[in-house]
């Protein structure tokens, strides 16, 4: 059992909201539930088209997929979205170069399966807040090989350059993770509009508050905006019951 709340916010600096979220606590196809955050990129309206079109494609593919494997279902859905985004970008010059991050998750019997492309993130709060996904970004690679520190990465001028995205290449590289959960754990899916504005400790502090799930999600968005709101903000907050 779980409950969830999702929200996107345009932030304080952007003219268009390129983030898109999906949250279903009810079964979808052979999945018991499904949660997605997508952060689009591209000129004019291409970024918001990419994120919305990708999420809608994933949802439709999951709905019709008869496989039993959660990883198989999510892999097929994201790979199909990648092909369709590239096809649409080739058909319409105004959509050329569009792409999107995707982080998606489904939970059954306290077992969370996560799929990730790009730098949107999934966190789990058990005894402490832990980032489950690994950013597909230039600065994350620099941190990994020791060129810069984690703190330097937060303010690096190239921090928004991602190394994987749905729509970027013919083949899309998807990372998968599995997490065992317990009652009382919290799961957060979010775009970098949240994590670039708030330190993990600030996020954890808000998630831990003894308030309704909706209030905590809204407070995450408010805090990101109060710290500058430089990008669109997407939040899906899940409580494991």
Polypeptide structure, described:
The chain is of the alpha+beta class and 241 residues long. It has a single domain, classed as PPM-type phosphatase domain (Phosphatase 2c, domain 1, 4-Layer Sandwich), CATH 3.60.40. It has helices at 46-64, 70-91, 138-144, 150-154, 192-195, 200-207, 213-226, and strands at 2-9, 19-24, 34-41, 99-100, 102-108, 111-117, 121-125, 129-131, 175-180, 186-190, 233-240. The strands form 2 sheets. Strands 2, 3, 4, 5, 6 and 9 form a 6-stranded antiparallel beta sheet that branches. Helix 1 (46-64) crosses helix 2. The radius of gyration is 17 Å and the shape is globular. The model has no long low-confidence stretch (mean pLDDT 95).
Strand content: 25-35%
Q: For the terminal residues, how far apart are their CA atoms?
A: 5 Å
CATH-assigned homologous superfamily: PPM-type phosphatase domain
- Second rung of CATH, namely the architecture: 4-Layer Sandwich
Total number of domains: 1
């Amino acid at each position: 059992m779980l409950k969830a709340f999702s929200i996107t916010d345009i932030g304080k600096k952007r003219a268009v909201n390129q983030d898109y979220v999906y949250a279903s606590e009810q079964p979808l196809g052979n999945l018991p539930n499904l949660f997605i955050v997508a952060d689009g990129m591209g000129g004019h309206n291409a970024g918001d088209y990419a994120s919305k079109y990708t999420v809608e494609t994933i949802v439709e593919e999951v709905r019709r997929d008869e496989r039993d494997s959660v990883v198989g279902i999510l892999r097929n859905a994201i790979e199909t979205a990648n092909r369709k985004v590239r096809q649409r970008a080739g058909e319409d010059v105004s959509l050329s170069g569009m792409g999107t991050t995707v982080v998606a998750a489904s939970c059954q019997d306290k077992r969370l399966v996560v799929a990730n492309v790009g730098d949107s993130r999934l966190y789990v709060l058990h005894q402490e807040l832990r980032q489950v996904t690994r950013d597909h970004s230039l600065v994350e690679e620099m941190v990994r090989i020791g060129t810069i520190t984690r703190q330097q990465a937060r303010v690096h001028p190239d921090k928004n350059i991602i190394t994987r995205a749905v729509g970027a290449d013919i083949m899309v590289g998807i990372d998968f993770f599995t997490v065992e959960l317990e009652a009382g754990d919290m799961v957060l899916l979010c775009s970098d509009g949240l994590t670039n504005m708030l330190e993990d400790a600030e996020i954890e502090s808000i998630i831990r508050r003894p308030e309704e799930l909706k209030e905590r999600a809204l407070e995450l968005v408010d805090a990101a905006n109060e710290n500058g709101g430089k990008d669109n903000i997407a939040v899906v907050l899940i409580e494991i019951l």
